[in-house]
Design goal:
The structure is a single chain. This protein has helices spanning 6-13, 17-25, 45-57, 62-69, 80-114; strands spanning 3-4, 32-33, 39-42. Strands 1-3-2 form a three-stranded antiparallel beta sheet. It folds into two domains: 1-78, Multidrug-efflux Transporter Regulator, Chain: A, Domain 2; 90-153, no CATH class. The chain contains five helices and three strands. It has 153 residues and is mainly alpha-helical. Strand 2 and strand 3 (39-42) form a beta hairpin.
Length: 153
């Protein structure tokens, strides 16, 4: 089996050696050790690191990535079936995120572009934190219905 040093993996993947060591402590990637205690990574680790980077770019947490990667083989390149299963497990999560980003884009475009400069007619205004009962975060931007609210005096 062809292996890579941590420096080779870092160079090929574009990820710092410190990040690779961190990924290893979190169980996202695995290495073996030489007699001189140097790390050696299976070549297939390049795909795992690429997946970690791509997942982080779209907002997946390291916990989500760890769960997904735990279903893939460490020592060999994942098969097409492996990738299909992994991508299916993220589909709902990514669809939800896309919907949230679309709503954010649309609401902010309206808010920034409307020129009303008035909290009285603002689509996301939440006086007195009335939307807190709906959950955490920007509830109206996440798709919750706006409630009839009275403007604070």
């Amino acid at each position: 089996m062809e292996t890579l040093t941590i420096g080779e993996l870092a160079s090929r993947s574009g990820v710092a050696t410190s990040a690779l060591r961190f990924y290893e402590t979190k169980g996202l990637i695995a290495s073996t050790r030489t007699d001189g205690n140097q790390r050696r990574y299976p070549r297939a680790t390049l795909r795992r690191v690429a997946l970690i980077r791509a997942g982080q770019e779209v907002g997946l947490s390291l916990a989500e990535l760890a769960t997904a990667l735990s279903t893939l083989p460490h020592e060999s390149t994942p098969t097409k079936a492996d990738w299909r299963r992994l991508s299916r497990s993220w589909r709902h999560r990514l669809d939800t995120q896309i919907a949230e980003l679309t709503a954010l884009r649309d609401e902010l475009t309206d808010c920034i572009g409307c020129g009303c400069l008035s909290l009285k007619s603002c689509a996301i205004f939440n006086p007195g934190d009335l939307a807190s009962g709906l959950g955490t975060g920007p509830r109206y931007l996440l798709g919750d219905e706006r409630r009839e609210v009275r403007r604070p005096r």
